[in-house]
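Regression test attached.
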Amino acid sequence: MSIKPAERLRLKDLVGIEPLTPEEIQLILDTADRMREVAERPIKKVPALRGKTVVNLFMEASTRTRFSFEVAEKRLSADSLNFSASASSVEKGETLLDTALNLEAMQPDFLVIRHKHAGAPHRLARVLRASVINAGDGAHEHPTQALLDALTIRLRRGTLEGQVVVIVGDIEHSRVARSDILLLSRMGARVRVAGPPSLIPCGIEALGCEVHHRMEEAVAGADVVMMLRIQLERQGRMNFPTVREYFDFFALTPERLKLARKDCLVMHPGPINRGVEIDSRVADGPQSVILEQVTNGVAVRMAVLYLLAGGHGEPIAD
Amino acid sequence: MNRLLIKHARVVDPSQRLDDGLDVLVVDGKVERIAERIQDKGAEVLDAAGLIAAPGFIDVHVHLREPGYEYKETVASGTAAALAGGFTALCCMANTNPVNDNAAVTEFVRARAEEAGNARVYPIGAVSKGLAGEELAELGEMVRAGAVGFSDDGRPVHNAHLMRKALEYARMFDVPIVEHAEDLDLVSKGVMHEGAVSTRLGLKGITAAAEDVVVARDLILADSFSARLHVAHVSTRGSIHRIRVAKGRGVPVTCEVTPHHLALTDEAVAATEYDTNTKMNPPLRSADHVEALIEAVLDGTVDCLASDHAPHHADEKALEFDLAPFGIVGLETAIPVTWDVLVRKHKMPVSRFVQLWTTNPARVYRLPGGTLKPGSPADITLLDPEARATVSPERFRSASRNTPFGGMRLRGWPAATIVGGEVRYRRERR
């Protein structure tokens, strides 16, 4: 199965992986691959989005995703405006819809939104003329994270097809897991998720994955192991007992990594909790591609912005 | 003397085992006589050819929101919506502000209804003071003021001991305790049915078990203390199964199901991309639960249909799915939605349909309606089984528009609503 890239994106918005076809995913990944080259230039900037305005509306804490979008926007010469919840009218009781309509009145071309409630980007996408890009909505989707994960795997492995990818951790509360499962299974990878049953949401298999509750079983023969961050604040809230016990059963240790394929990639969407879900020897080891993910994130976000602006073909002729 | 003659109707009245082409003569607000070809010179004639004439439909689960939330609904607007929906009477829930937990509020609501002169209103009082789930409210005083049952609806009676005492105490007045069955610990912060769809949408789920455990507990209590339990808005396979078994063993339990739990599944949340008009409590369940509910309506396990009319202002519903309030309006769509699912799709006999909307509601709450026996109040619903129309929320009489049925084309609409012999609503032909 080799998937031919689509010519362009049909959609105004990127609210999730769910609405994308494999051909469109291929197009984004191919475009991102070419965008990587911009970062190698002495002047890391192309004029592709000159005169376009991007509003980064981050209503939930985020460092890496927000920076990554900002870097991507700047490298494409777009004008970026940053809007974070603490500095906004949200604290004065304005609704999301009103906030968005006010921003829209300033005629931006893109709205990048991170929000703690699932479905918020969808709601805005329906009423705004600007292209809405979902930078993470509740426990729903985080499409650019899944795209950068896919790009990272593809660059290291040459293909996504047939790759056995294991996602470990708090699947229930993870938007990264949902987007990754959708994307990777759609592109022909075999996805396994692993974690205690109390952190695996019911019906997750329907998104395209197998479920495991024993780490050793899940990791056996894997091409990629992706560890999710365990949110320490969830400890003791009945989802799982303690970090100590979690580490004991589910952390990625050098011993467990040996059960995977020899060249198995170790991934993590960050921020990592050393000694909680991942042993430092693994996080910093030769199989880790955690920092490559961050680098590829910029390229993926450049590709998404560029394609939603109507771009296609050779993007960076300047 | 005021005389109204309804001619050529198909009169369906399960209380008299009637289902025939007949005329109904109403004199001074009471049913005088039902017979073939009645002649009466002085009477105003209402030609009901092609229509079904039934005892006035009763919606036993309505939130009128007054006092306190008049921006969502008032007694006047809610009862006008009831008339337009084909209902001659309704029971209204106690979660107003102040709460209907004392005779003064009960009387206030009834006086408001009297003033409005639309559908009849039978208040359901609160089980506990302030709906706090701690102390019993003055049930007896409220019964004297006109309350017909008791419920903390909107919330469950969490404390099993309080539930036991409420059930026991209410026996004195022969009124049911109505449970909103939901274990709040299990619900946690859920906003839709827990299943494959909630997982896909990344929304926190409400497990069906949250309803089942409370229904199971209450059935045990009703059984142990021989007291009347009515389970509101049953939505799961597990709870309806337990109710069926309990009924078989003679436990004094009755229950109701809403139109939306019969007509929609949790897929509606996905299909509408998080439309908050698909958010209600209990939530829209998966197809398997819906199937079990329809089966239970058809086999007689379910006693009543009831809308759980829960008006909310458009501004409240314009929030994110997690933040918007639970609830949808239902009075003006309940009859066509259930006619469509039950009579058209599942071939339910019309007399059974009428039973679910009036005979049984009157029996559960011991209300004066539910029958057209001579001498009873002339509360009559005329139904046009062939009328087709599109649900247009902008034309609702209700003060709120929060419905998931907008734009849906349905058949089987109320043609006229008669209360005490007076035609208070007549559907314009469009």
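Expected vs. actual: identical. Chain B has a mean pLDDT of 97.
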